[in-house]
């Protein structure tokens, strides 16, 4: 398995708004080949720190998703979000191969 974490900070007062956006996400990634799971994580001590976790069967499955038209479409929509403070956030992305369960 292969997992990707995208961590970003939003103003704490906007965290609930961002959480609602992800709760109503398009779910296009759910249809991607090899997709396993999506989670949105909120830091227990810093509510403005959010992490998207994606899990795929393989790194190749993830790379296929990251190169797809659906991926581009979703990320273009993010850039057009009306709240420019949120639209300008650049996440820290970390990628991992699962080596034990």
Polypeptide structure, described:
This is Antibiotic biosynthesis monooxygenase family protein. Keywords: Monooxygenase, Oxidoreductase. One of its GO terms (molecular function) is monooxygenase activity. Its EC number is 1.14.-.-. This protein has about 100 residues and is of the alpha+beta class. The protein has one domain (about 1-95): Alpha-Beta Plaits. Helices cover about 30% and strands about 30% of the residues. It has helices at about 15-25, 60-65, 70-80, 85, and strands at about 1-10, 35-40, 50-55, 90-95. Strands 2-3-1-4 form a 4-stranded antiparallel beta sheet. The model has no long low-confidence stretch (mean pLDDT about 90).
Instruction: Tell me the domain tally.
Output: 1
Secondary-structure element pattern, one letter each: EHEEHHHE
Going by helix content, strand content and strand pairing, the class is: alpha+beta
How much is the average pLDDT? 92
Assigned CATH architecture: 2-Layer Sandwich
Percent of residues in β-strands: 25-35%
Total helix count? 4
Low-confidence spans = none
Radius of gyration: 14 Å
Under the CATH scheme, which class?
Alpha Beta
CATH topology: Alpha-Beta Plaits
- The 3D shape can be described as globular
GO molecular function, one term: monooxygenase activity
InterPro entries: ABM_dom, Dimeric_a/b-barrel, Heme-degrading_MO
EC number: 1.14.-.-
Pfam family, one: ABM
């Amino acid at each position: 398995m292969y997992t990707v974490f995208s961590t970003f900070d939003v103003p704490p007062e906007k965290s609930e708004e961002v959480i609602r956006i992800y709760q109503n996400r398009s779910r296009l990634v759910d249809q991607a080949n090899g997709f396993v799971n999506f989670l949105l994580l909120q830091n227990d001590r810093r509510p403005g720190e959010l992490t998207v976790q994606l899990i795929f069967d393989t790194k190749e499955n993830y790379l296929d998703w990251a190169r797809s038209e659906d991926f581009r479409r979703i990320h273009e929509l993010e850039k057009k979000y009306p709240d420019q403070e949120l639209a300008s956030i650049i996440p820290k992305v970390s990628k991992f191969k699962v080596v034990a369960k």
